[in-house]
Automatic annotation (TrEMBL), chain B:
Its main location: membrane. Residues 822-944 form the Na+/H+ antiporter MnhB subunit-related protein domain. It is a multi-pass membrane protein. This is Monovalent cation/H+ antiporter subunit A. Keywords: Antiport, Cell membrane, Hydrogen ion transport, Ion transport, Membrane, Transmembrane, Transmembrane helix, Transport. PANTHER family: NA(+)/H(+) ANTIPORTER SUBUNIT (PTHR43373), NA(+)_H(+) ANTIPORTER SUBUNIT A (PTHR43373:SF1). The chain crosses the membrane at residues 6-24, 36-60, 80-99, 111-128, 134-155, 167-189, 209-234, 246-268, 274-295, 302-320, 371-394, 461-486, 506-527, 578-596, 608-628, 635-655, 661-682, 703-724, 762-780, 818-840, 852-874, 886-908, 928-950. NCBIfam families: 2a6301s01, PRK12648.1. It comes from Tianweitania aestuarii. InterPro entries: CPA3_Na-H_Antiporter_A, MnhB, MrpA/MnhA1/PhaAB, MrpA_C/MbhD, MrpA_C/MbhE, ND/Mrp_TM, Proton_antipo_N. Residues 619-684 form the MrpA C-terminal/MbhD domain.
Length: 113, 972
């Protein structure tokens, strides 16, 4: 049942993120993007059909691929985590600079009428 | 030197010359001309020496694979036709280079002129010699772009800019059409190779895509050759320096269109559709061009319309589908280039010497410059088709073809009349040019006193006029054999019998010539007085300006239409854009769901892993809570976000991804710190209205957003569940697992993939990371805090006020002692975390850890110092220089990559071995570790840079506050 739990978790993370993505305040959007990135990272990770106790750290000698978790989605997600951090930082700066320049934290840079 | 090498050199030489010419100093006019003349002369010699090889009848070929999978090769091919054209281009190019030396003023940017001139010549030779249709289109576009540069050479003049832009727009659109047409032809034939295409005429003509293909190809050819209705860019291109007009608008660029039509004529021509399209465009250009030319005041304008007319003649000849017509077309291409280039150069001399090109102002120049006048008269006679000159011969062939019946239609019946009328017009404008400029009253108010130009400026015209005469008198002996190999290479076995002679007896074409000559001369006599005073532009058509229509269309497409689309379909509102984006992705994701019969797969309620389920109950609660609290309770939302992050992290541990867990945890910390640093600059917001009191429209909007979010979440759940419950297909992961230790020298497969197997991707990724950090840094230089956030935070103000009230405390003491114990602990943690980072780094290749995780850990050590003691304290004691870390990291990673070249391996090949160090023991020593060191250094630099610029804003705030208080004091 790990699959169902994880799938529900991904769904809620992405759903909450998408809700926030449509909100008017920049801070809501940055929280939303972070939630979506958790969800998407887990989704990519779930492509490896995860199981417990199969970390892809091999021993010497002949290797049986079936005995280890799929390392490829993991390396993809690892880079995604780091790049996600970088884009979060970038967005945060844009958010703050925009707030400083326009005086508003609305995503359009001005308060709605 | 074999012929293939010579062919390659012929293309390469002008481009190399262009690069060389660009490097000359601006005032080296003579040296520059010498260099350009040598380059062009070299090209002439190269083409000439290819004649023996081409004369054998088999084309000279050179094939270099470029993108073989796309059927694209850099293949050059020179047959007789291409040879004749390349001789024409190189010879006229050489003459124009000499002429330009005297035409261009020392104030002009000479290096730019010759660089583009030579590059243009190279591009034109490229069109002529391409043996692959795609390559031809590449060179075709290149000529459009370089001609834009040349027409706009005097970019300080508005008409030069406008003319350049118009020609680029029109020929550029045509070029796109040609590309599409060529792709269609390639699709039909299955190859872009010119020989293969020339062999499949029947296949192409019978294909359903034939009509679209010729429409597109002809769009390219007509725009390039300034054929009706795309003719109007050519007169506007006359703003170019005259040498450019002499080269581009007589011999080369405009000839590219008719060249292409002749080149593909055996394959595309001879059908009814081809006849109508080219016949109509050709006849209209022939007639209208000649008519318009009569009424121009500008000499170059007259020559430009005359060029349109003559190119129309060639197009009309190619429309007929008869081999004799094709012979006449090829012959006329040569003849027109010879006399038109010399006329343009003569026009340039007149302009240069007298300071004007307006025929109503000029007059009586014969006495002042008799040589130039004589040369211009001979060349104009050739343009008018006077016997004993080359223009007469091809025009005679044209008349002979015009009276033949090819396809029974109105166009065909009208052809002889159109031909005679257009020829009469040609006579009229030729006489007008000569009479208005060289005879009559000599005006007193010319801007300059005209006299004969230097000998070398006249020499190119003399040579060309001599060619007109010689070809006109003894055609068979002089050009007969060259023309023959060109004709045979186009027509092959269909080559008709034709005779190049001045006298064919008393024939109908001769009669037509006589009528045209007399009629044209009479027309000039009638129009003489009108032309001497009339306003610009031909009667009846004066108001109908192609240029105006073009501008209207441009304004409509690029402004009004764009505005309309923007107003109806666009939005400036971010929320709507994002909503649209989500909606589109939902639809795009739903289509495959629907199409491939989505099923959830095996749904078994097997053993429930209760701890894991509980974990996710918390995770889901955190996610939903963060979404709910993000508007009014930012800190709560941040904490809940962190909670969701930690649950994600534990999930990674649970499901065999220790590396991800380590990295996620560390990144989580750094992100939280970053956002905490940012929170301070956001406006305060209190929950003022209850949800119940929100207007109904807001409720509806929220309901819709909730629905979108719910659908997206459900979709992700279904999708990931469906994937996870299906068996994994065979992927390349097995390979990585098997080879990681054997070839990568590491046990931690994830790390080996990152630094070894996919090292190049990681290299790109850390570059991106570095760029993002620098961008954050650069953006913050522009940061100005909003007025309401300049003041120090409320808590600090209360603490400072307490200090002031109490006599035993110094102001600011409470603030500085804030959280003293944690601060001290954090300061002590500095070396501990550094050791931890080193540990993470060193074990990375064999056990979970690695450069990314170590880098983030290390940056946490730095930021903790900032948190513990404040920015000023840290920077007094520690010089971190994060930008240097970034640079060093990229340098190490790059050098490790390049290092493998030294040993003859591809970029970033790694080498691994275990070495035994005293005390530490056996450690893995793969070059990938060095690469990982680069990753580590860059991640440290980038993360610390971002954190520091955020932290630094607290200092900026003080400064900003100080400035605002001083201004307030000043005002007071």
């Amino acid at each position: 049942m790990i699959e169902l739990t994880l799938a529900l978790g991904i769904g809620f993370l992405v759903g909450s993120g998408i809700w926030l993505l449509q909100r008017p305040r920049t801070y809501q959007v940055i929280v939303g993007l972070s939630l979506i990135s958790y969800g998407v990272n887990l989704f990519i990770f779930s492509m490896s059909r995860p199981r417990s106790n199969m970390a892809p750290v091999v021993t010497s000698g002949t290797v049986d691929p079936a005995a280890y978790a799929d390392p490829l989605p993991q390396s993809l997600v690892l880079t995604a985590i780091v790049i996600g951090f970088a884009t979060t930082a970038l967005f945060l700066v844009v958010l703050l600079v925009s707030r400083g320049l326009t005086g508003s934290d609305h995503v359009d840079g001005r308060e709605p009428n | 030197m074999n012929s293939e090498t010579m062919l390659m050199m012929l293309i390469a030489l002008p481009f190399a010359g262009a690069c060389l010419a660009a490097l000359f100093p601006p005032n080296a006019r003579n040296a520059e001309t010498w260099a350009a003349a040598l380059v062009t002369l070299g090209a002439v010699v190269l083409s000439a020496s290819l004649f023996p090889a081409v004369a054998t009848g088999t084309p000279v070929r050179l094939n270099i694979e470029w993108l073989p999978t796309l059927g694209l090769s850099f293949s050059l091919r020179m047959d007789g036709f291409a040879w004749l054209f390349s001789m024409l281009v190189t010879c006229i190019g050489f003459l124009v280079v000499i002429y330009s030396r005297y035409y261009m003023s020392p104030d002009d940017a000479i290096p730019r002129f010759y660089a583009f001139f030579l590059a243009f010549m190279g591009a034109m030779l490229g069109i002529i010699l391409s043996g692959n249709l795609i390559l031809l289109v590449v060179f075709w576009e290149l000529t459009s772009i370089i001609s834009f540069m040349l027409i706009g050479y005097w970019y300080q003049k508005a008409d030069a800019r406008d003319g350049a832009r118009m020609s680029l727009t029109i020929t550029g659109v045509g070029g796109l059409g040609l590309l599409a047409g060529v792709l269609l032809i390639g699709h039909i034939v299955g190859s872009y190779d010119l020989d293969a295409v020339l062999d499949s005429g029947d296949l192409i003509r019978s294909h359903p895509l034939y009509v679209p293909a010729i429409c597109l190809v002809l769009l390219g050819a007509f725009t390039k050759s300034a054929q009706f209705p795309f003719h109007f860019w050519l007169p506007n291109a006359m703003a170019a320096p005259t040498p450019v007009s002499a080269f581009l608008h007589s011999a080369t660029m405009v000839k590219a269109g008719v060249f292409l039509m002749a080149r593909l004529w055996p394959v595309l021509g001879g059908t009814y559709e081809w006849f109508w399209l080219t016949g109509f465009a050709g006849a209209a250009s022939l007639l209208l061009g000649a008519y318009f030319a009569i009424f121009q005041r500008d000499i170059k304008g007259l020559l430009a319309y005359s060029t349109i007319s003559h190119l129309g003649l060639i197009t009309l000849l190619l429309s007929l589908g008869s081999p004799l017509g094709a012979v006449a077309a090829i012959f006329h291409m040569m003849n027109h280039a010879t006399f038109k280039a010399s006329l343009f150069m003569a026009a340039g001399i007149i302009d240069h010497e007298s300071g004007t090109r307006d025929m109503q102002k000029l007059g009586g120049l014969f006495k002042l410059m008799p040589y130039t006048a004589t040369l211009a008269m001979v060349a104009s006679a050739a343009m008018a088709g006077v016997p004993l000159l080359n223009g007469f011969l091809s025009k005679e062939m044209f008349f002979a073809e015009a009276i033949e019946t090819h396809a029974d239609s109105i166009l065909d019946t009208a052809a002889p009349y159109v031909a005679v009328i257009a020829s009469a017009f040609a006579v009229t404008y030729s006489i007008r040019f000569i009479h208005a400029v060289f005879f009559g009253e000599r005006p007193a108010d010319l801007p300059r006193e005209p006299h004969e130009p230097p000998f070398l400026m006249r020499l190119p015209i003399q040579l060309l006029v001599l060619a007109c005469l010689v070809i006109g008198i003894i055609p068979a002996i002089t050009v007969g054999s060259f023309l023959h190999i060109a004709v045979v290479s186009v027509l092959g076995a269909d080559t008709p019998a034709y005779s190049l002679a001045v006298w064919h007896g008393l024939t109908v074409p001769l009669g037509m010539s006589v009528i045209a000559l007399i009629g044209g001369a009479l027309l000039y006599v009638l129009l003489r007085h009108y032309l001497a005073h009339c306003e610009e532009g031909p009667p009846y058509f004066r108001r109908l300006k192609g240029q105006r229509i073009f501008e209207r269309v441009l304004v409509f497409v690029s402004w009004r239409f764009a505005r309309l689309v923007e107003a109806t379909l666009g939005t400036r509102r971010m929320q709507q854009q994002l909503r649209l984006l989500v909606a589109v992705s939902l639809v795009a994701a739903a289509i495959p769901f629907y199409n491939s019969n989505f099923g959830l797969g095996l749904f078994e309620l097997g053993q429930i892993d209760i701890p894991f389920a509980l974990l996710w109950v918390i995770g889901i609660a955190c996610a939903v809570g963060a979404a709910h609290q993000a508007k009014f309770h930012r800190l709560v939302a941040l904490i809940l976000l962190g909670g969701a992050g930690v649950v994600t992290c534990i999930t990674f541990v649970w499901l065999s991804a220790p590396d991800l867990a380590v990295t996620q945890l560390l990144v989580e910390i750094v992100t939280a710190v970053l956002i905490l640093l940012g929170l301070r600059w956001l406006p305060k917001r209190w929950e003022d209205t209850e949800l119940g009191r929100a207007p109904i429209s807001t409720k509806l909007r929220r309901g819709r957003d909730l629905l979108v979010a719910a659908v997206a979440g459900l979709g992700m759940t279904l999708l990931s569940y469906a994937v996870m419950t299906r068996p994994s297909p065979d992927t390349i992961s097995g390979f990585f697992l098997r080879k990681a230790y054997e070839e990568g020298g590491g046990r931690n497969v994830v790390n080996v993939i990152l630094v070894d197997f996919r090292g190049f991707d990681t290299f790109g990724e850390i570059t991106v990371l570095g760029i993002v950090a620098l961008t954050v840094f650069a953006l913050f230089r522009r940061f100005r805090p909003a007025p309401d956030t300049i003041e120090s935070p409320e808590q600090q103000r209360i603490q400072a006020a307490t200090d002031e009230e109490r006599s035993d405390r110094i102001t600011g003491q409470t603030v500085s002692d804030y959280l003293l114990v944690p601060s001290v602990i954090m300061q002590w943690l500095f070396p501990v975390i550094i050791v931890f980072a080193a540990y993470l780094f060193l074990r990375g290749h064999d056990l979970p850890g690695g450069g990314f995780a170590a880098g983030v850990a290390m940056s946490a050590a730095f930021i903790l110092q900032y948190l513990a003691a404040g920015t000023v304290w840290v920077e007094d004691r520690l010089r971190i220089l994060p930008v240097n870390w970034i640079g060093l990291g990229l340098l190490i990673a790059g050098c490790v990559g390049i290092g493998s070249w030294v040993f003859g391996y591809p970029f970033l090949t790694s080498y691994s071995q275990y070495i035994d160090l005293p005390v530490i023991g056996e450690i893995p020593a793969a070059t990938a570790i060095l690469f990982d060191l680069g990753v580590f250094s860059l991640v440290v630099g980038a993360t610390v840079l971002m954190l520091i610029v955020f932290a630094h804003q607290s200092i900026r705030r003080l400064r900003a506050a100080k400035i605002s208080t001083t201004t307030i004091e000043e005002v007071a």
